[in-house]
Amino acid sequence: MIPFHHFHVDSLVLHYVAFWKPVAYAVIFLAMIFEGEIFLFTAGFLASRGILDSAPTLLALFIGVIFGDWLWYALGYKVNHSEDRFGRWLVKATGQFDEHLLQSPLRTLFISKFIYGFHHFILARAGVLKLRFSEFVKDDLIANIAWIFIIGGLGYLSGAWFGSAKHYLRFAEQALLVSLLLFLGLQVFIGKYKLKQKL
Description:
The protein is mainly alpha-helical. It contains 10 helices and no strands. The chain has one domain. 37% of the residues are buried. It comes from Candidatus Portnoybacteria bacterium CG02_land_8_20_14_3_00_45_8.
């Protein structure tokens, strides 16, 4: 990997990201709790360009997503779906997937990760259904490892592609924006397809 400062490319903000790496890792950790896909993809891109270091980036991603998933599960576990407004909404939004969660939790957790904005509600629903926590942790761990390497890998490869396209894109942020738009388009397509099939 070539250090970021060796690239003859103008950048608006990424030099500041490279300078404040500890802050960037903390942001990644927090972002993985509440968002996920965009920050995972972006982290892979930045690691590929040498703006962030791969090892601490991967650690922040992994710890953040695991901690976040447990929080969403705990939120669902404490919800009384017959009395709580969020619980009633959760049943309406995700109740149709209960059979999948109960019979194939690993497959359901993994596929839901590729449906933008939907995965956290599936995690909360798993808590509402009181899935055995030890089994949930095991299945969620496997799903997360695969998801991080797939989405993070796409971001990493996009960063590598930028190396060959730098003559056409002046700013590193432009390359990241193009990559994110393509990625989000793919996410929306997959999400609509899988929801139509009910996972």
